[in-house]
Design brief:
Layout: E1 3-5, H1 8-16, E2 23-27, E3 39-43, H2 52-64, E4 70-72, H3 74-80, E5 84-87, H4 98-105, E6 113-116, H5 122-135, H6 139-162, E7 168-173, E8 183-184, H7 186-192, E9 195-196, E10 201-202, H8 211-217, E11 221-224, H9 231-235, H10 239-242, H11 251-254, E12 258-261, H12 271-285, H13 294-297, E13 300-302, H14 303-312
Parallel strand pairs: 1-2, 1-5, 2-3, 5-6, 7-9, 7-11, 8-10, 11-12
Antiparallel strand pairs: 3-4, 12-13
C-alpha cells in the first residue's frame, strides 16, 4: 500500500506509530522525520521570511481572489500513484484543503482513497490517529500508541487534583498581528493543563481579538504560539505586542508569566505533539508542581525573564 500525506500532522502520527514504510510522499512542511520523503505539495510562501502582517495580507488577498496558497506536483503524484491520500478541511492557510486535493487526484490514472482528517477538539485528534492506522490496516498500533499518551495526560490531571491546583486565567495567541485567539483543540489542551481561556473558541476557528478585550480580560498567564512560528521567529515580532498601549499593565507581564512556545505543540494537530503541548502548558501554569523534561524545556521560554536578563547584560 502506498500512502501520500498532504497534512504534516498526519505525517507526524504515521512516523510516531512506526508506519512510515507505507509513506511515499509528503508536503514541503512535514516534520523532520520525513525530510527525505518526496515533496508532493508546495506553497507560494515556501522559503520566504514574511512577517505576520505580510502573511495575513497574502492569505486575505488569495482568499478574496479564490486562489490557494498551495499547489501539487502532478507529475510526482502520478509517479507515486498512491492508494490513500490524507488531507484536511480545518485551515486553508496552514495546509492544502480537501477541495484542492480532489482537483489534483482527479487527474491521476488511478484514483486513490481520500481520507480527510478534520478534528475540532482534542478527542477528535486522538480519533484521527485511529483513522490513519485503520486506513493502513493497523488499528491496534494506534490503540497502543494512544494508551501511552493517555497515561501522560492522566498523570497531569492526577497531580493537579492532588495539589488542589486552582484554574489559571489564560490566553493563548495563535497569531500576533492581527491578534488571533485560540480555537479548535487548544482550549481543551489548556483545560487539561489546569487553565481556562475565556477568550478562546473551543471546537471552532480562531478569530481576530481586539486588544481592548484582552486588557479587560487581563490574563494571569499569556502564551504566544503563532501558527508556523518557532520561538526564535516569534521573538522577532514581540515588539508588535510589547509596544501596545498598557502592555505593562497586564497581570501576566507584571508577574513574569508571558511565555513564547513553538507552534507545533498547538497548531499542528498530531496527538503526540499536542500532548507535549499539554505538558508544556502545565509547566507554565503551575511551575510549583510541574518541571519540564529536557525535551519539553526546549519548546518554550519565559519572555518576561528573558527580556530582563538581556537588559541586565
Amino acid at each position: 500500500m502506498k500512502v501520500v500525506s498532504f497534512l504534516p500532522a498526519a505525517t507526524k502520527m504515521i512516523y510516531d506509530m512506526g508506519l512510515q514504510e507505507y509513506l511515499h510522499g509528503v508536503t514541503f512542511e512535514c516534520p523532520k522525520e520525513a525530510v527525505n520523503q518526496p515533496k508532493v505539495v508546495r506553497c507560494i510562501l515556501e522559503g520566504k521570511n514574511y512577517s505576520s502582517i505580510e502573511i495575513d495580507r497574502i492569505f486575505s488577498a488569495s482568499k478574496a481572489q479564490g486562489k490557494s496558497l498551495y499547489w501539487v506536483d502532478d507529475n510526482l503524484l502520478e509517479s507515486i500513484l498512491p492508494d490513500v491520500v490524507f488531507t484536511q478541511d480545518i485551515c486553508e492557510v496552514c495546509n492544502i484543503d480537501t477541495v484542492c486535493t480532489e482537483t489534483a487526484v482527479m487527474k491521476l490514472s488511478k484514483q486513490p482513497t481520500l481520507v480527510p482528517l478534520s478534528p475540532n477538539n482534542l478527542q477528535d485528534v486522538f480519533e484521527c490517529a485511529i483513522t490513519i492506522a485503520k486506513a493502513l490496516g493497523k488499528e491496534e498500533v494506534a490503540l497502543n500508541y494512544l494508551a501511552g499518551l493517555q497515561k501522560k495526560t492522566d498523570h497531569i490531571l492526577d497531580q493537579l487534583r492532588a495539589n488542589r491546583a486552582p484554574l489559571k486565567r489564560i490566553m493563548l495567541m495563535e497569531w500576533i498581528e492581527p491578534i488571533y485567539n485560540c480555537g479548535h483543540w487548544i482550549p481543551f489542551q489548556i483545560a487539561a493543563a489546569g487553565g481556562v481561556d475565556m477568550l478562546s473558541n473551543p471546537g471552532g476557528d480562531s478569530i481576530v481579538t481586539q486588544w481592548d478585550k484582552i486588557l479587560k480580560y487581563n490574563p494571569e498567564v499569556l502564551v504566544i504560539a503563532p501558527c508556523g512560528f518557532d520561538m526564535k521567529r516569534s521573538m522577532e515580532e514581540m515588539e508588535l505586542l510589547t509596544s501596545k498601549p498598557d502592555w505593562t499593565d497586564l497581570e501576566a507581564v507584571k508577574n513574569n508569566q508571558v511565555y513564547i512556545a513553538d507552534f507545533d505543540m498547538f497548531t499542528q494537530p498530531s496527538v503526540g505533539t499536542l500532548v507535549e503541548g499539554i505538558e508544556a502548558l502545565a509547566c507554565m501554569f503551575h511551575p510549583e508542581i510541574f518541571k519540564p523534561s529536557e525535551s519539553i524545556a526546549k519548546k518554550f521560554i519565559n519572555h518576561s525573564k528573558t527580556v530582563k536578563s538581556l537588559r541586565s547584560v
